[in-house]
Amino acid sequence: MSQNQATDDATQGADRAPSAGAYSAAGVTISGLHKSFGDNEVLKGIDMEVAPGEVVCLIGASGSGKSTLLRCVNRLENPNAGTITVGEHEATHPDVNLDAMRRQIGMVFQQFNLFPHLSVLENCTITPRRVLGQSKAESEAEAMAQLDTVGLKHLSDRRPDQLSGGQQQRVAIARALTMKPQLMLFDEPTSALDPETVGDVLASMRKLAEAGMTMLVVTHEMGFAREVADRVVFMDQGLVVEEGPATDVIGNPQQPRTQDFLRRVLNPLAE
Prior knowledge:
- With 271 residues, the protein is of the alpha/beta class.
- The protein is 37% helix and 22% strand.
- The protein has helices at 3-11, 66-73, 98-102, 120-131, 136-149, 165-177, 195-210, 222-228, 246-249, 256-266; strands at 28-37, 40-50, 55-59, 81-86, 89-90, 105-108, 183-187, 214-218, 231-236, 239-244.
- Strands 6-7-8-3-9-10 form a 6-stranded mixed β-sheet, sandwiched between helices.
- Strand 7 (183-187), helix 7 and strand 8 (214-218) form a beta-alpha-beta unit.
- The longest helix has 16 residues, at 195-210.
């Protein structure tokens, strides 16, 4: 099965209908965001709104600033200028309580970052117990519920090296959900996976979207973006070039740079 086929299989089905109240959702407001690494200005004044419960997919070529934008939202990178607000927290305020803010945010990276010496269940309970102060019983009950959400409850006693890449990424999603986040950030979560496992991960993400989770997703999976995103943002060279509903941005892009990018992605063999 090709990667495109796996993506399409994972995103076919009924129209998205979020379940109100399934998740406590936080919105994001980004204003005038700049970020440089030395002389390289990666973000050049980003303005963006993500409403509570909205799914926004960031697309664009490698090096366009998408991942840096995501890392700034979680303050894994410190912006040079601009403001970011996540829910009730102004993430860029000098006195922000970063620990409290980050408890609202779950982040899933390209690599799974699971503890290799711990079981799936232990990977999902260690942070709630240490950070939230949950009891062993409470954390295990929540972890099993989230593993069930991603279809891996039956593998809770396995170690990461006994799982496929796609299964490990779904564990990483479940682990993030055990912290009861109000916002999920996904940084190309399928880029390190075999094509046959991509669909399972995208299906888990689609399930979160249908339940009303606020999601900001960096992805090259155009099928997922087309079917699941409320809005698609195309970035190039640190700027937002075009944004709007997926049917418009992917199906009928207006900007020449967006058109060129999508032509190369959707028809890589075309001249």
